[in-house]
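Example: Carboxypeptidase-like regulatory domain-containing protein.
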Amino acid sequence: MIRILYILFFTLITYVAAAQNSVDKKIVQFSGVIYDVDSNSVIPYVTLNNTTAGKTYAANYKGYYSFVAHEGDSIIFTSIGYKKAVVVIPYNIKDNKFTAIVKMKSDNIELPVVRVFPWASTDEFKHDFMTMKFADDDLEIAKKNVKKTMSDAMTFGVPMDGAEIQGLSFKNQHIALSNKNMVQTNPLLNPLAWAAFLKQISEGKSNKSK
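Written out as structure tokens, the predicted fold is:
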């Protein structure tokens, strides 16, 4: 019983001493504005934690704050994307006012890389992989690549180099020189061509009648 009384007595003394110390501290109107140290722009809605008194405050959208504290109180400024800043209210302040322009430094946090896949789970990936259908095997793909139509399309799509252009130019010049002193025949004046043309027409009509 005596031990319990001693414990209560010392607890009461400690509480009274702490309360007396708080009363002895001078009350101060603590105010100011919070800026970004790099851009000098205001930081809105910063959280201010008075660790000495156990109270929390917040700055407004213009970065302005103002609240009542005591001399010697430690104020911690925190905001998302910025490093913490600590301000200790000094003693022996005149006029019971203390103004502090607080500048906070941005804090860059590197997040781990996230890869997004079109499967919700590994089971879905295994199912899609096992049921995947390939159009052809390697042999069929090779056959398609060497088809004449494919090679022709690739040939026409590729521009000629210098050697090909020079060869084509020489060929056209040779044809022009060969036909320079010759009379060009007109196929409309060729009787053999007309006979073949009329024969084709007659054969076409007979085939339709059949």
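The chain has a mean pLDDT of 81.
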